[in-house]
Structure formats: structure tokens, C-alpha cells
Amino acid sequence: MPSNQSITPINTPTRCPNHCTDDEAKSLHELIPEYLRHGKTMEVLKDVVDRVERLYKTEVETAEKYKRDPRSPGLIAEALGDYLDWDAMMAVQSRGEDVMVVQRRVDWAKWVASAAKIKLFHEPNHTCGSMHRQVRVAMERVEGHS
User: Fold this and answer.
1) By C-alpha distance, which of 109, 141, 130, 132 is closest to 10?
2) At 139, phi and psi to the nearest 5?
3) Any alpha helices (H) in 66-98, and if so which ranges?
4) What pLDDT digit, counting tens, does each position of 90-124 carry?
5) pTM above 0.85, yes or no
6) How far apart are CA 84 and CA 79, in angstroms?
7) Interatomic CA distance for residues 11 and 83, integer angstroms
8) What is the dihedral of CA 105, 22, 141, 11, to 10 degrees?
9) What is the pLDDT of residue 113?
10) Is the CB of residue 25 less than 8 Å from the CB of residue 142?
11) From which domain of life does this come (predicted)?
12) Side-chain half-sphere of 48: how many Cα atoms within 13 Å?
């Protein structure tokens, strides 16, 4: 690449036109239940967003193979939330998972589906980075304006 061109570093917050407005992000942020805003539950959020990103990557590969359009990250996140909600009882009763961990996972998955629908994040790319990065940057921006 010629020396007079530069690439925006991936850690620079973007104002990508594909993202929701700060007001929309703030409204979504306010929907986060208080018990999800602290401690290890943020790790659960990261895990859910990373899972959506892996599922989206698989969806894109499958869509290319069958020459069709991939489902959006929002539809994938919604399907994941529905699945985790459906699987919650089995997770607790049959696999012995902690009920609060399971509930946090379900609640974050539903929040992530809402976040995807309003375009808090979109498919990963060089400009905006991973889905998790997009969520983190948006939340940092919103929390900085609170």
C-alpha cells in the first residue's frame, strides 16, 4: 500500500452508517435489567455475541454453498435466543447447570436479538471489527453520555 494511504485502526470507534443512532443505543441500553449490568454477566454477554458471530459465519458459508442469501445477524440472534429459552429447563434439570447462569444467558440472548434488529451491530468487517467489538464500542459510547 502506498505510504500516503492509511487504514483506520480497528480500535478506533466508527460512525458506520449501518449502525443505529446513539439515542437508539441508549434506549436499548436502558432495557438491560439491572442484574445483568454487573460482574460476570458481562462475560455471558460476550459469550452470546461471540456465539452469534460463529453462527453467522457458518450461515454465510452455508448460504454460499447453496447459492442463497444468508440470514441476517438479527435473525440468527433471535433463533439463538429462542433455542436457549427452549433449552433452559433441560440445561438446569438434565445437565445440572446453575439456574441463574442459564437465565442470564437467555436474557442476554434476547437482548442481543433486539440489539441486532436495531443495528447496534452488523456482520463483522474490517472497518467495524467483530460483532462483540461493535457492541462494546456502542455501549461505551452510550455509557459515556449517561
Assistant:
1) 130
2) -70, -40
3) 73-93
4) 999 999 999 999 999 999 999 999 999 999 999 99
5) no
6) 9
7) 33
8) 90
9) 95
10) yes
11) Eukaryota
12) 35
Cell of 138: 456502542
How far is the C-alpha of 63 from the C-alpha of 41, rounded, in Å? 33
Map residue 129 onto helix, strand or coil. strand
Q: Compute the radius of gyration of the chain from its Cα atoms.
A: 17
Residues 6+ apart with CB under 8 A from 140: 13
**Sign of the dihedral defined by the CA atoms of residues 124, 63, 114, 17, in that order:** positive
Residue 129 has φ and ψ, to the nearest 5°, of 85, -160
Residue type, 15: R
* Residue 84: all three cell numbers together: 436457549
pLDDT tens-digit readout, 22-70:
899 999 999 898 889 887 888 999 999 999 999 999 999 999 999 999 9
Residue found under cell 434439570: 93
Q: For residues 108 and 110, give the distance between their C-alpha atoms in angstroms, rounded to a whole number.
A: 5
Distance CA 57, CA 12 (A): 24
Question: Grid coordinates representing 67?
Answer: 447459492
